[in-house]
Amino acid sequence: MDSGWAPPLWDGPGLYALPGQGGGGHDRLAQDRLGQERDGYERHGHERRLPSRSGSFAGGTGPAPGRSGTLRNLVRQEMVARQLAEQLTGRTAQRVLDIGCGQGTQALRLARAGHYVTGIDSDAAALGAAQETLAGEPDTVRERIQLLIGDGHQCGRWFGARSFDVVLCHGVLMYLPDPDPMIASLARLLAPGGLLSLVVRNRDALALRPAAAGDWRAALEAFESDRYYNRLGLAARADRIGDLAVTLSEVSVPLRHWYGVRVLTESTPDDAPPVDGRQLAQLLEAEERAGRTDPYRQVAALLHVIGMK
Question: Is 76 exposed, middle or buried (0-12, 13-18, 19+ CB in 10 A)?
Answer without folding.
Answer: buried
